[in-house]
Amino acid sequence: MYQPGSGPFTVDLAAGEYHYEWFNPDAGAVVKTGTITSAGGSRTFKPPFSGHAVLFLADFEVMTPGDFDRDGDVDREDFRYFQACFSGPTVAVEPGCEESDLDSNGAVDHDDFSVFESCIGGLLANSQL
Fold first, then answer.
1. Residue 21 near residue 30 (C-beta atoms within 8 A)
2. Cα–chain-centroid distance for residue 112?
């Protein structure tokens, strides 16, 4: 959502959890990120800076595969979760690790790692796992 002036504005949201990102177009920079929970209906947002503002909202249901901590990127924290769930092609997904089965074949294996690896950004983008 683009806010051409300063001050708060209202957005109608469906019930759910959202990742948000405030972007300052004058500075060309992301200023703040985080998560919110909406019960549904109107919600007022106030930019954390003055002037023009852009608010990006993403429903967790449509977040990037591999973003297990729902912070808007796939990084070391997500890799730790994935690594703890990795079991191999012949072992069924452990309870609590279903989200790591990125290809939905019932196992957390090298095929899932290939999907995970293709989504890496953030702190992992330029480092070794």
1. yes
2. 18
DSSP-assigned beta bridge partners for residue 33: 21
- pLDDT in the model for residue 65: 84
Helix %, strand %, coil % of the chain (to 5): 20, 30, 50
Which DSSP helix (H) or strand (E) runs through 113? Answer: helix 110-118
Q: In the chain, what are the domain boundaries?
A: 2-62, 76-124
- Min mean pLDDT across 42-46, 62-66, 121-125 is at 121-125
**pTM for the model:** 0.51
Q: Which residues of 13-47 are buried (b: 16+ CB within 10 A; e: fewer)?
A: beeeebbeebbbeeeeeeeeeeeeebeeeeeebeb
Start-to-end C-alpha separation, the chain:
36
